[in-house]
Design goal:
271 residues, alpha/beta, TIM Barrel, eight-stranded parallel β-sheet, 48% helix, 15% strand
């Protein structure tokens, strides 16, 4: 083994468990970003679905680039438009999701969940979430959960519709107690750019105290820029920086963080 091979083997391997890599913000330099990711050890990226029309373009992207893995779901921000513009009954939306999952290589259902900061009626959000949880249960797939100011309600929904394969609540910004409540239900905690902000004391304390087996790394790129990059496009290239902050908070090596969180992501998504 030469020195180059040894250095390559020693490099930590990361999995970005949540990155909207199909969004137009990456259209001009997608291949360059992927190359940079590989140089930094980010070798796998889970790309969530947000609405039915996007699932099909995402499927083509997944086929084109190695290391990308697809989820299919209806994000709360798209719920009202999908339901109104398609003029579809919820049963039809559910069947569309079942059909797509049956015909494509999907590692999770999502991004789905609840958001109290948007105008979409919570009753409609809950109804669309429930149909997705049913599909996840039927297809034995994990869920990728979105939660903004809805942790308590989302926990109630998960308890009412247990997801056999677990999942992750992404972009977590809650308390240690809330993180524990999700973990008790088999839902891991998505750790992203939020922890790079010193003011996020509650969330930084939560991810410091949680078992490392409960955590996944993510960027949520192109959103959720890290501290110091406010106003800029976020990128999966920066995942090692999130890992380094988590390592510093926990007093562990970045190699340990990379190895365990990658094992966690592989376990959740069957990568």
């Amino acid at each position: 083994m030469n020195a180059t091979d040894a250095a390559s083997q020693a490099k930590p391997n990361f999995i970005d468990s949540h990155c909207h890599f199909d969004f137009e913000e990456f259209d001009q330099d997608r291949e360059q970003v992927l190359s940079s990711c590989r140089e930094r050890g980010v070798n796998k990226i889970v790309v969530p679905g947000v609405e039915p029309a996007q699932w099909f373009t995402l499927a083509k992207l997944i086929e084109r680039y190695e290391g990308l893995h697809m989820a299919a779901g209806i994000h709360p921000w798209w719920v009202e438009r999908v339901v109104l513009e398609s003029n579809s009954a919820l049963e039809q939306l559910q069947q569309n999701l079942v059909d797509f999952v049956g015909q494509n290589k999907v590692v999770a259902i999502g991004e789905c969940g609840l958001d109290a900061a948007i105008a979409t009626p919570m009753s409609l959000q809950v109804a669309v979430l429930r149909l997705q949880l049913e599909v996840a249960s039927e297809k034995c797939l994990p869920v990728i959960l979105h939660s903004r100011k809805t942790h308590t309600l989302l926990l109630q929904e998960i308890k009412g519709s247990p997801v056999a394969k677990g999942g992750v609540v992404h972009g977590f910004s809650g308390s240690y107690e809330q993180a524990c409540a999700f973990w008790d239900l088999g839902i891991r905690i998505g750790v992203g750019g939020t922890i790079t902000y010193p003011r996020a004391a509650k969330t930084r304390a939560a991810v410091t105290k949680m078992p490392l087996e409960a955590l996944l790394l993510e960027t949520d790129a192109p959103d959720m820029p890290l501290a110091g990059r406010q106003g800029q496009r976020n990128s999966p290239e920066y995942l090692p920086e999130v890992a380094q902050v988590l390592a510093d908070l926990r007093g562990q090596s970045v190699e340990t963080i990379a190895a365990q969180t990658s094992a966690n992501a592989s376990d959740v998504f069957g990568l």
